[in-house]
Amino acid sequence: MKLQTEVLIIGGGATGAGILRDLSLRGIPSLLIEKGDFLSGASGRNHGLFHSGGRYVVSDPEAARECIAENRILRKIAPHCIEETDGLFVSLPEDGLDFRNRFVGACEEAALPARLLSRDETLSLEPGLNPDLLSAVKVLDGAIDPFELVLANAKDAEAHGATSLLHTEVISLLVDGDRVKTVLAKDLLHGEEYLIEASYLINATGAWADQLLKLAGLRIAVALSKGSMLITNQRLSNRVINRCRPPSDGDIVVPNHTVSILGTTSIRLEDAENFEVTPQEVFLLIKETSKMLPAIEETRFIRAYAGIRPLFQSGEKGDDRVISRGFVLIDHEKRDGIRNLITITGGKLVTYRLMAEKTSDLLCRKMGIDVSCTTHLNPLPGAEKPSGLKDRLKTLGKVETLCDCELVRREEVEEVLREGKLKNLQDILHRTRLAKGTCQGGFCVYRLLGMLNELELAEGNSNKILKGFLEERWKGIQPVLWGASVKEEELMEGIYKGIFNL
Predict the structure, then answer these.
(1) Of the residues 219, 237, 311, 329, which has the maximum number of CB atoms within 10 A of its CB?
(2) Residue 322 per-residue DSSP state
(3) Using the 8-state DSSP alphabet, how is residue 379 labeled?
């Protein structure tokens, strides 16, 4: 099939969806293609931290200033995606106070709101913290739901005329002189091929940026840094808890709805596709984070997972943590002589909107048009009616619930299904909180498949789909399988072997 568009965006993470929305609000026709579902890369595999900029204020003040500026904007345009928890940077006896003093000074210099708390003030806010702590600094951190955020961007973009092709991979780029002339892409689920002609291409593929550019005979220096995280079966704190020391492994705990997420590591990889969480990383994260919250040592973990950070290299050597978390925008006309190709990579989830704005501004200059960005002014869909766990609790017992852990109502899933265009089970899970709770889908996914069969919406063999889900789920459960988790997994095995004969 032949397709034509003014702008082709490759990559369906936060940046790609943000660019799609930005261009649609400027009235510029655009098409996004993504080889998986939205959020299949780093955007859907992070610790959900709503950055204040504090984590980078000492080592990378420019990135910190970008974070706090976008933090303020997102509170206005996406309140339904954010839990304004605040955050604490905690100093332990082994940390001393030198870094804390530098941290407070850097916050003042970068205009990041920060307040120094005594030991007693800190423990009154978070009694579960290590009682031996020296002090803490309170900042404007929070928790953010990346799935809600990215999908809201995509929904708004489509409402303004943009289109998306999911589960569609770029196979080749045809470069003719100083332009990319055509893009060959393939639907990975149904085999259909698309020959796409676009006036401009935007490479927003994150960790796969260099891989895509190779199809055009180009290269950029991207370091792939794996960050592994653990999910607890309960929420351990009301606020984000950071270690007040130079960034290192196991220095953050982020509350996320009914659970907490412990992070993170930084390990250089060569392959963005094949990676796993190792036992060494699991034990390191538990050891380090429990120094801040001792209860972690006795906590049950329900899942381990990892994401790949694309870090643009500009000559840095050694520890990946010294590479800037800022973003880089590349005009390949200036760099490589390819007039209609732009790459945007690096950055943080909280700066996605700014990255999209800068990319769209560059595109408009190249197109010779003058249309301003409005994404910082227009709220995202859903902003008018924020809903969270408290709202879901109000409906408990009144409506049919598919997921008991996260109180996902059947009507929520039916609403997602009515929007159409979902191609597999994971697409549905990305659009709800179903299977994100303590049982990790063990008691709700089979209910979902039953509902799909009832509505005659199931595609393919439901038992095969269910088995595929369980195999994928096992990858995250296996690294944390001890204690009570073993008992739960034996129960799940009994259910799926005994009842479903899998």
Answers:
(1) 311
(2) G
(3) P
